[in-house]
Amino acid sequence: MVLKRPLFWIFVYAALIFMFFFNLIPFFWMTSSSLKTDYEVIDYPPTILPQTVTFGAYTRMWTQEQFFQYFLNSVTVSSTTAFFSSFVGVFAAYGFSRFFFRGRTTLMTIFLASQMIPGVLLVGPYFKMLSYVALYNTLAGLILSQTTITLPFSIWMLKGYVDTVPLAIDQAAMVDGASRLRICLTIILPNILPGMVATIIFAFLLSWGDLLWALCLISDQAKQTMTLGITQLVGQFRVQWSEIMAATVIVTLVPATLYLLLQRYLIKGFTEGAVKR
To answer: Phi/psi zone of residue 103: left (φ > 0), alpha (ψ -120 to 50 degrees), beta?
Structure first.
């Protein structure tokens, strides 16, 4: 038994090191390729590090390819989607946690089952509905569609956090004359703040990396998001690899920076949501 424990930890650390490099190498290659010239990035055999470091791909991306507008569109859509899915989700989660009504369990099951439906099957109906209400090819329509996708899971996540807040706190606040709305905003919300952060990050990342919905619901180039704008760099006769890599680096850095800034709240939210008091 004494001999097996060192072997076990050696295996664990070896697996962690392998996973570290497995996830780091694509990002390293992407960053390296974004700093290469147009000729070097397609040269064979490929070079690991750029022989001539250049930021030309980043400059062309922002000045010629309208990526600044794509970036603003992505930030607007992702931030608004995260806000609405979390804001509406916290009230719905409070209702499911504190009120017991007929069909409560069935409705929660439907919310969970809706996450199992592939998004490609929903694009057609959403396209028809948004076209009917004149929201096709608008950022508002894209935000609405992505909010309906992220909202059910947000409700499920936030309900678990609301359940951790003792019901006695609500009862004590109602004795003092507080309304349900005030209890939710001033008592429940501060206590589940890590859970709110986790939900906001989930919704933001899901919307930030979306391509299918933006491709099917946006046709105007000025309203395209970053992920959709990157696909425009793949032409019929030429693929602009340097610009693609530079744009992908920026698309990757935004959620990575968000995660690093909110890492403490995110980890705390995941751990607290798993424990029911």
So the answer is: left
Confirm or reject CATH 3.40.50.2000 for domain 65-273, answering yes or no: no
Q: In which residue are the tokens 């909202």 written?
A: 151
Q: What are phi and psi of 80, to 5 degrees?
A: -65, -40
Name 274's Cβ contacts closer than 8 Å, sequence gap at least 6. 160
* Helix and strand numbers, DSSP H then E, in the chain: 14, 0
Mean pLDDT, to the nearest integer, of 19-41? 87
pTM (two decimals): 0.81
Strand runs labelled E in 10-107 = none
Fill in the DSSP letter of residue 184.
I
Neighbour-count burial of 49, counting CB atoms closer than 10 A to its CB (0-12 exposed, 13-18 middle, 19+ buried): exposed
**C-alpha to C-alpha distance for 118 and 123, rounded to whole angstroms:** 9
Cα gap 257→268, rounded to integer Å: 18
